[in-house]
Amino acid sequence: MPLVTAAHAPAAVRYRVTRTIPVGSYPLGVAVDPAARTVYVANQGGGTVSVIDAATGTVTGTIPVGSHPFGVAVDPAARTVYVANFGGGTVSVIDAATGTVTRTIPVGRYAFGVGVDPATRTVYVANYFDGTVSVIDAATGTMTGTIAVGSDPAGVAVDPASRTVYVANFGGGTVSVIDAATGTVTGTIPVGSDPAGVAVDPASRTVYVANAFGGTVSVIDGATSTVTATIPVGSYPAGVAVDRGTHTAYVANANDNTVSVISRSM
Questions:
Q1: What is the pLDDT of residues 228-237, one digit of tens each?
Q2: Alpha-carbon distance 192 to 215, whole Å?
Q3: What is the rounded CA–CA span in Å between residue 102 and residue 222?
Q4: What are the angstrom distances between the C-alpha of 106 and each of 61, 101, 141, 194?
Q5: What is the pLDDT of residues 211-227, one digit of tens each?
Q6: How many Å separate Cα 190 from the centre of its chain?
Q7: Torsions phi, psi of 23, nearest 5?
Q8: What is the DSSP letter of 66?
Q9: In angstroms, rounded to a whole number, what is the distance separating the alpha carbons of residues 251 and 266?
Q10: Taking the C-alpha atoms of 43, 47, 53 and 59 in order, what is their torsion angle to the nearest 10 degrees?
């Protein structure tokens, strides 16, 4: 497939889509367990999560969750998957080893995106119509606070190395940057049209933002908080996740019922 040159990125960096995987109805969220090489896709239309074997690119299972699941995140050390259910304002907690839902946690209005800080076992949930992020103690399953962010917050991702939380604000075309240690917003980054999903590659301090109506992914340098590349993908990309072991990004294209796979090379 043709290579896509990263605009304004170092000349040696290239990105390309290498595979497309059919999943469930209207996929919106995607997350990766790098240790197990497993990808989880939230299918909003079916109220399920598709489980993908990253090594073979095949769907190996389907897990029923809450109403209209939008976001999904993984805590690899705890082998736990968190799913934000937009319809019910809840988070489903999945035991990855058994593929079963073990707990449902109430959060704010219309839970959209979810991210995990594995070092502190803290879960962050974007509440779309509240303009806030709920903070959950994963050990107890209780909400410990809320953080005001931008307009219509959607996707959430955590850089555990820098203790930074990134929130894609769908209504504002921006990403809010949160200092996890203080629970405060320290910056706002303009991205593409209607950003819905966000993911972090901690090793390279690279942030990927899925711009739903733009049909693109914005690539942010986390060290400088600047957009270094814009990559065309499928129709209505709403979720994105990174396999930290291979530095591969997976993008859920809702209107195509597909996942675009982006490889990063030097």
A1: 999 999 999 9
A2: 9
A3: 34
A4: 26, 14, 10, 26
A5: 999 999 999 999 999 99
A6: 18
A7: -130, -145
A8: S
A9: 21
A10: -90
CA dist 151 and 181 (Å) reads 23
Q: How far, in whole angstroms, is CA 185 from its chain's centroid?
A: 19
Going across the sheet that includes 111-117, the strands are: 111-117, 122-127, 132-137, 142-148
**pTM of the prediction?**
0.80
CB-based contacts of 255, cutoff 8 Å, min separation 6 = 234, 235, 236
Residue 66 corresponds to which tokens in the numbers above? Answer: 């809450």
* Separation between Cα atoms, residue 72 and residue 240, nearest integer Å: 10
Q: Which amino acid is residue 48, in one-letter code?
A: T
Is residue 89 classed as helix, strand or coil in its secondary structure?
coil
Rounded-to-10 torsion of CA 124, 129, 131, 135 = -20
DSSP string of 139-165?
A: TTTEEEEEEE-SSSEEEEEEETTTTEE
Among 119, 195, 126, 218, which Cα is nearest to 159's?
Answer: 119
pLDDT tens digits, 98-122: 999 999 999 998 998 899 998 899 9
* CATH number of the domain where residue 159 is located: 2.130.10.10
Q: Where are the beta strands (DSSP E) in 118-257?
A: 122-127, 132-137, 142-148, 153-159, 164-169, 174-179, 184-190, 195-201, 206-211, 216-221, 226-232, 237-243, 248-253
Domain total for the chain?
A: 1
Domain range holding 24? 4-265
Six-digit token string for 172: 């504002």
